[in-house]
Amino acid sequence: MPRTTGEWFLPRRSANSATCVQTKFTEDAVYVRNNRRPDAGTVVFDHTEWAMFVAGVKDGDYDL
Predict the structure, then answer these.
(1) Alpha carbon distance 7, 30 (integer Å)
(2) Cβ-Cβ contacts under 8 Å for 18 (sequence gap 6 or more)
(3) Can you tell me the distance from the alpha carbon of 21 to that of 36, in angstroms, rounded to the nearest whole number?
(4) Quick one: average pLDDT of 7-15?
(5) How confident is the model at residue 17 (pLDDT cuts 50, 70, 90)?
(6) Residue 56 to residue 48: CA distance in whole angstroms
(7) What is the per-residue pLDDT for 11?
(8) What ranges do the domains of the chain cover?
(9) pLDDT beyond 70 at 63
(10) Selection from 32, 33, 31, 24 nearest residue 3 by Cα
């Protein structure tokens, strides 16, 4: 688990704060939401689900 801050943050690549996702890590879960519309809903992953998603991204499973 890379962070346990409990605070929302933007990825480093979103330097201009354009539409992007915000992420928050807690002891129990990883939360993801749209930074432009935080009231639109939040997706929650447990740490195993998040690790599998990140591994898939690194493996190119989600390349467009």
Answers:
(1) 11
(2) none
(3) 8
(4) 80
(5) low
(6) 12
(7) 81
(8) 1-59
(9) yes
(10) 24
Q: What's the rounded Cα separation, in Å, for the pair 26 and 60?
A: 26
CA distance 11 to 33: 12
Residues 6+ apart with CB under 8 A from 61: none
Please give the structure tokens belonging to residue 58.
């690194």
| Structure-block tokens of residue 55 | 């591994």
Is it the case that residue 32 has pLDDT exceeding 90? yes
According to the 3-state scheme, what is the secondary structure of the chain?
CCCCCCCCECCCCCCCCCCCEEEEECCCCEEEEECCCHHHCCEEECHHHHHHHHHHHHCCCCCC
> 16: number of CA atoms within 13 Å, CB side?
2
